[in-house]
Design goal:
The complex is a heterodimer.
Chain A: H1 7-20, H2 28-64, H3 71-78, H4 93-128, H5 134-153, H6 162-205
Helix pairs in contact in A: 1-2, 1-6, 4-5, 5-6
Chain B: H1 2-15, H2 25-28, E1 41-47, E2 56-61, E3 71-79, E4 87-93, E5 98-101, E6 112-119, E7 123-125, H3 144-165, H4 179-191, E8 195-198, H5 207-226, E9 230-234, H6 237-254, E10 265-267, H7 272-286, E11 290-294, H8 301-310, E12 314-319, H9 325-331, E13 334-337, H10 339-349, H11 352-381, H12 383-392
Parallel strand pairs in B: 8-9, 8-11, 9-10, 11-12, 12-13
Antiparallel strand pairs in B: 1-2, 2-5, 3-4, 3-6, 6-7
Helix pairs in contact in B: 3-11, 4-5, 5-6, 5-10, 7-8, 10-11, 11-12
The chains are: A mainly alpha, B alpha/beta.
Chain lengths: ~210, ~400
């Protein structure tokens, strides 16, 4: 077993083991790594915000491209700093209102397009495509029933009784089958993350894997 | 007899060119005739519709040699005058007969295009197109369906909000999981332990975050009432600011501003996994009696929920993140699935605005179900109408 001579690899490996020690129980090593991680990432986050948000969206347009319209959203954003003053703290409601208002406006139409219209189109297209024939058409109809019954599960204006209860119960089955498939798929992705970390320890640190 | 067969085989081998002696210099230097290809024809250029400008769509008729598989692709060239210098602006492989030039330097200025058929051995340039100008459109006609849907939805919501504000009683069915909120707060009070509330990891513009903050207000009112410690770690600085205001307001509303602890709502870090490790540490050390995970979550969902389950806390989760819901369902005691999260804030607060919105959403869903059933029936009866329906629902 040949250990790495790179001190950065050692630091990364030791911190990885410190975090892994949480699997046993919360301890001083984990606490050290956790606080280091939180502190470093918070500081790193500030640098990222500066470089990815402030510089390309405010500094470059205003000072390099001389597009002075960008000063207005810049000033609105800076109004968040009013929260540090007890007297003028209420002024942060202005940037918040702008943020929520523009956010809702920007997302509403695309949400309708992607989550409503496109889904409706796919549901009708798959369930009525006679060219698919046989099982293709059957699966299209199954998906269509899934859409209707799932929607009925999320109907809150009536008690789930009678036909609505039957429909909602079928809907929850569709939902759970979907979640089961998603669960398996995501677990595989997470296992690959673990493999990546173990590979780092075995390859870069102790050189067992060449 | 066998010798005769061998002799015959040798004679045949000698006759085959590949087995014969290599050709002399004279044979190898003989020029091969280059196979020329025909250019594409009918070059048309026009402004790309329904866009923000600076784009021209070029169309052409394929070279007749494409059918003979002699064409590899087409180069699209642009110039400012028909006789000017044409520069390459794009390339499409064979089979395509159009190209969107998305990098037109100026709107309203004339540009000319030529298309070059690129063969294996030769190239052929088309005649120049007629001029085309790019322009920006104020309205995307492909999104009329979205506009109509938004207007219809808004109308339904406004009607129900006005009905709720006029004092009309609007029924909402009981949502399993929300009934547990009171019990969860009571349990924390009895055990003398805090309540942990994570309002998701997304930004304030996420609907799930807004729903989570609405529920936080209701939970904070209960913690103020019972004098139970509340911990609200945040990942987003803006969400942190809003969460702090909401909790403070909740304590004021209950008449316990003195009980409000300014440090109960705090910022951890912007890093996803840094935040997860921080919350894990808090759960392991503070041992909250109840954990709320409401809002938008990503890969950290199972890390948080699993650690919370190990500490023995009652866990109530709610998210519209489809890929994280299975993890919350398996590791939490109660899970609000998708729209239940949005409904929860209306259910808990009974505020007319939220109730009206929820009712509006419900009846919009009913309209969607009716349209789907009608669409299916009509499409099966008449395939012609099916195409019209699918076209109407097409997303532009």
């Amino acid at each position: 077993m040949i250990f790495s001579t790179n001190p950065w690899v050692w630091i990364a490996a030791i911190l990885t083991l410190c975090i892994f020690s949480f699997l046993y129980k919360e301890n001083a090593f984990y606490r050290f790594a956790e606080h280091l991680f939180v502190g470093v990432s918070a500081g790193y986050g500030v640098a990222i915000y500066w470089n990815n948000a402030i510089v390309p969206n405010l500094y470059v347009p205003v000072f390099h491209q001389h597009n002075y319209w960008f000063i207005i959203p810049g000033l609105i954003g800076m109004m968040f700093f009013f929260r540090f003053s007890a007297k003028t703290g209420w002024l942060i409601l202005i940037p918040l209102a702008v943020l929520l208002g523009t956010g809702s406006g920007v997302y509403l139409a695309p949400t309708f397009q992607a989550d409503v219209l496109k889904q409706m189109q796919s549901a009708i297209a798959d369930a009525t495509n006679l060219e698919l024939g046989g099982w293709g058409l059957v699966w299209g109809l199954v998906a269509f029933v899934g859409v209707l019954t799932t929607l009925s599960y999320f109907f809150f204006s009536r008690e789930q009784k009678g036909a609505l209860k039957i429909s909602a119960n079928i809907g929850i089955w569709f939902i759970m089958i979907g979640f089961g498939a998603s669960f398996g798929n995501t677990v595989m992705a997470r296992v690959s993350l673990l493999i990546g970390r173990v590979q780092f320890l075995l390859t870069d640190w102790i050189h067992i894997i060449k | 007899m066998r010798l005769k067969i061998y002799a015959l085989l040798l004679a045949m081998a000698a006759a085959l060119p590949c087995l014969a002696a290599p050709p002399g210099p004279a044979a190898s230097e003989a020029p091969m005739a280059a196979v020329t290809v025909a250019p594409p024809s009918g070059i048309k250029a026009a402004d790309t519709p329904n866009d923000a400008g600076n784009a021209i769509t070029v169309r052409w008729q394929a070279s007749p040699d494409e059918a003979r598989k002699m064409i590899e692709g087409y180069e699209v060239l642009r110039a400012e005058t028909p006789d000017g210098e044409f520069i390459k602006v794009g390339y499409v492989p064979y089979g395509f007969t159009s190209f969107d030039d998305q990098d037109v330097p100026a709107n309203g200025k004339e540009y000319f295009y030529r298309v070059k058929a690129v063969g294996r051995e030769s190239q052929a340039l088309s005649l120049a197109s007629v001029s085309a100008r790019s322009a920006e459109q104020w309205f995307n006609t492909m999104r009329i369906n979205a506009l109509v849907s938004c207007l219809l939805f808004t109308l339904i919501v406004v009607i129900f909000i006005s009905r709720a504000k006029s004092g009309q009683s609007l029924f909402i069915r009981r949502i399993a999981g929300l009934a547990a909120v009171e019990e969860a707060v009571g349990r924390a009070t009895e055990m003398g332990r805090p309540i942990l509330y994570v309002p998701g990891l997304s930004s304030i513009s996420d609907v799930a975050t807004i729903a989570a903050l609405n529920i936080l207000g209701q939970v904070a009112k209960k913690t103020a009432e019972y004098d139970t410690p509340l911990l609200v770690p945040n990942r987003d600085p803006v969400v942190f600011t809003v969460a702090q205001e909401i909790v403070k307001e909740a304590y004021n509303e209950i008449g316990r501003p003195d009980a409000y602890n300014h440090d109960s709502v705090f910022y951890l870090t912007d890093s996803q996994m840094g935040f997860a490790s921080g919350v894990d540490g808090i759960m392991a050390r503070e041992k909250p009696a109840t954990n709320f995970f409401m809002g938008m979550f990503w890969a950290e969902s199972l890390i948080l929920a699993e650690t919370g389950a190990e500490t023995g806390a009652i866990q109530i989760a709610g998210t519209d993140a489809i890929h994280q819901l299975p993890f919350f369902i398996t590791a939490c005691d109660y899970t609000l699935i998708g729209e239940e999260l949005y409904a929860a804030s209306a259910y808990l607060s009974r505020e007319p605005m939220l109730l009206g919105t929820l009712k509006g959403q419900d009846w919009s869903k009913a309209v969607i179900v009716l349209l789907l059933i009608a669409g299916l029936a009509v499409s099966l009866i008449n395939p012609g109408i099916r195409e019209i329906i699918l076209q109407m629902l097409k997303v532009g």
